[in-house]
Design goal:
Elements: H1 5-22, H2 31-58, H3 64-87, H4 93-115, H5 126-144, E1 147-148, E2 152-153, H6 154-188
Antiparallel strand pairs: 1-2
Helix pairs in contact: 1-2, 1-3, 2-3, 2-5, 3-4, 3-5, 4-6, 5-6
């Protein structure tokens, strides 16, 4: 369904991306206020990712359109946040390139595997879920860019976590490519 509650939450995630990015371009707003606002927005929007999936299953409102749109919204959100962080010099461009490049490559691989009827071989794996979790913790830390509760240096922890996410990104990409390779070889004959 194009407009049910879970899908509307996914659409809201997409619509919110310019708000998260735009916070950093507001004139006359103190940097710490921008950081806190963007962090809170990102966290709230990231929670809708869990909520839309939960509601879709719970209310029996799953749809092929929702299954398509949900990962697109996630990728838009993550890519936008990574680009902002590179622009703010809180994230090395190489880490962002690895993460964004993997998302593009695996999305293309999944599309191609679906076309040849082998989408199960590249279904979401726990490694990809762990990568996403680490990434979704790292990004708000880097957006916040300060001391949380006066104790936690979020830039330090965010930087360490985003590099861990980059390593997991490469590892999960290799995993998905290995799973797809037998199907690719079979179709190449």
């Amino acid at each position: 369904m194009f407009f049910n509650l879970p899908t509307l939450l996914t659409w809201a995630r997409i619509v919110s991306i310019p708000l998260i990015v735009g916070v950093f371009y507001l004139d006359g707003v103190h940097e710490s206020t921008r950081n806190i606002t963007a962090t809170v927005l990102f966290i709230v929007v990231a929670i809708t990712d869990w909520a839309d999936g939960y509601l879709a299953r719970r209310l029996n409102m799953t749809s092929s359109f929702g299954a398509f749109l949900d990962p697109v919204a996630d990728k838009f959100l993550v890519c936008a946040a990574l680009l902002v962080l590179v622009h703010l010099q809180r994230l090395h461009a190489f880490a962002a390139l690895v993460i964004i490049g993997r998302e593009i490559a695996i999305s293309a691989l999944r599309e191609w595997m679906a076309q040849i009827g082998a989408s199960r071989s590249v279904a979401v794996h726990m490694l990809g879920k762990i990568k996403t979790t680490v990434q979704m913790i790292a990004i708000p830390f880097l957006l916040f860019d300060g001391r949380l509760f006066g104790l936690i240096d979020t830039r330090l922890w965010g930087t360490m976590l985003i590099w861990i996410a980059a390593v997991l990104t490469i590892w999960s990409m290799i995993y998905y490519l290995q799973k797809a390779l037998p199907e690719i070889r079979a179709k190449a004959r």
